[in-house]
């Protein structure tokens, strides 16, 4: 018996719109990706995620379960979404009742290396590179920093 188990990444059970462009390697499973989207290399998109039409996901981004992204968004390189806040002092260890949802509106651009905690972000928002979004954003504008605050 081998002393390790190997699982393959790839594209499995994904519901695609038309004219989607993907640069492998990626790990996409059980998600929905709308028309004319782009997904760059080394991206993981987990099950039940929805990506709206014309949204672009740049390389090295991680989109976990319970995330919904609107149309015409730009998700930069290495953007991390979070659904488990370690609210009871550590990981939920698969207890999905502890996971939280994220909803990103339309025309939202998220700068590279940002972290998005479980929040709602309204339409027409820019998040600066390296930001950490900890609270809902309900007004259009540009937000930067950790925690992200509105600058314009
Ligand atoms: C947020 C952003 C859009 C702001 O651009 P801008 O409107 O031209 O703003 P400015 O460069 O005039 O900066 C305004 C202020 O915010 C600060 N700031 C800008 N971007 C910041 C960031 N990402 N994090 C923290 N502070 C930032 C600036 O230092 C400046 O501060 P000051 O007023 O104290 O001098 C831009 O800086 C950014 O982060 N873009 C992300 C780009 C990206 O990740 N692209 C991915 C594909 S390559």
UniProtKB/TrEMBL annotation:
<dbReference type="InterPro" id="IPR050179">
    <property type="entry name" value="Trans_hexapeptide_repeat"/>
</dbReference>
<dbReference type="GO" id="GO:0016740">
    <property type="term" value="F:transferase activity"/>
</dbReference>
<dbReference type="Pfam" id="PF00132">
    <property type="entry name" value="Hexapep"/>
</dbReference>
<dbReference type="InterPro" id="IPR001451">
    <property type="entry name" value="Hexapep"/>
</dbReference>
<protein>
    <submittedName>
        <fullName>N-acetyltransferase</fullName>
    </submittedName>
</protein>
<dbReference type="InterPro" id="IPR011004">
    <property type="entry name" value="Trimer_LpxA-like_sf"/>
</dbReference>
<comment type="similarity">
    <text>Belongs to the transferase hexapeptide repeat family.</text>
</comment>
<dbReference type="Pfam" id="PF14602">
    <property type="entry name" value="Hexapep_2"/>
</dbReference>
């Amino acid at each position: 018996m081998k002393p390790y188990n190997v699982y393959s990444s790839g594209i499995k059970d994904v519901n695609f719109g038309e004219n989607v462009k993907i640069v492998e390697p990626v790990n996409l499973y059980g998600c929905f990706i709308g028309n004319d989207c782009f997904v760059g290399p080394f991206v993981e998109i987990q099950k039940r995620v929805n990506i709206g039409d014309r949204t672009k996901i740049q390389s090295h981004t991680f989109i976990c379960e319970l995330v919904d992204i609107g149309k015409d968004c730009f998700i930069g390189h290495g953007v991390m979404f979070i659904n488990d806040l370690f609210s009871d002092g550590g990981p939920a260890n698969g207890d999905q009742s502890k996971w939280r949802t994220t909803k990103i509106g339309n025309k939202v651009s998220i700068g590279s290396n940002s972290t998005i905690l479980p929040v709602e972000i309204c339409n027409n928002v820019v998040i600066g590179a390296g930001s950490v979004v900890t609270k809902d954003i309900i007004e259009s504008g540009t937000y930067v920093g950790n925690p992200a605050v509105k600058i314009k």
